[in-house]
Design a protein that fits this description.
It holds the Pfam family 5-FTHF_cyc-lig. Belongs to the 5-formyltetrahydrofolate cyclo-ligase family. It catalyses: (6S)-5-formyl-5,6,7,8-tetrahydrofolate + ATP = (6R)-5,10-methenyltetrahydrofolate + ADP + phosphate. It comes from Streptomyces werraensis. This protein is 26% helix and 23% strand. The protein is of the alpha/beta class and 211 residues long. Helix 4 links the parallel strand 1 and strand 2. The protein is globular and about 40 Å long.
Length: 211
């Protein structure tokens, strides 16, 4: 995880390409096995144990898998909000009502297909009702800085939470090898509270709530 001294820090584009190359080499069995372990770790988080509303997302391709986690949260009686991508890359939200409630939606001129919640759209501000927000990402570093895919959707989410003066727990779901010493950052980037990987949980600054 330590970068070589004297080597320049990689930019975000380079780091994203490196992470995606590794993810693309994972098999379906790899993804499924990691997803089961990831769900167990995440469900044990005090931040999720006491949550009434959780904003999450539907993993696609070789992303760390979320379907089992979404179903387990819903089975607990948690209100799970899932995003729908808007034309300007902002996110509206809808309530997750089970796997059959997800519909494929094409974006980027048909180049990208996401699973989004059917039914009523609650608008971008619905995320401010969440007790915890599960964020996608490509890496997190020792300071809690998150490297996203570069679309800016979750930068808008974090800015919206800040404007609303609400402070849900911010949790990133990653593979173990994606927790690194340092990721490139920009002035608008904000740290998260914790990262969950199949092998454990790492926290950054904010203590865990009491169970």
């Amino acid at each position: 995880m330590r970068q070589n001294q004297g080597q320049p820090e990689p930019d975000k584009r380079t780091r994203r390409r490196e992470v995606l190359q590794v993810r693309n080499g994972l098999t379906a069995d790899d993804v499924q096995g990691h997803a089961a372990a990831l769900a167990r770790r995440a469900l044990a988080l005090p931040e999720l144990a006491g949550a009434r509303t959780v904003a999450a997302y539907v993993s696609v391709g070789s992303e760390p898998g979320t379907p089992a986690l979404l179903d387990a949260l819903r089975a607990r009686g948690v209100r799970v909000l899932l995003p729908a991508l808007l034309p300007d890359n902002d996110l509206a939200w809808g309530v997750y009502r089970g796997p059959d409630s997800l519909l494929p939606a094409r974006h980027g001129g048909g180049r990208m297909t996401l699973l989004e919640p059917a039914g009523e759209r609650l608008g971008p501000d619905a995320v401010t009702e969440a007790d915890a927000v599960l964020l996608p990402g490509l890496s997190v570093d020792a300071r809690g800085m998150r490297l996203g895919r570069g679309g800016g959707s979750y930068d808008r989410v974090l800015a919206r939470l800040e404007r609303a003066r609400v402070r849900p727990a911010l949790v990133v779901l990653l593979y173990d090898w994606e927790v690194v010493e340092r990721v490139p950052e920009e002035p608008h980037d904000r740290p998260v509270d914790a990262v969950v990987t199949p092998s454990g949980v790492r926290r950054f600054g904010r203590p865990a709530p009491e169970a």
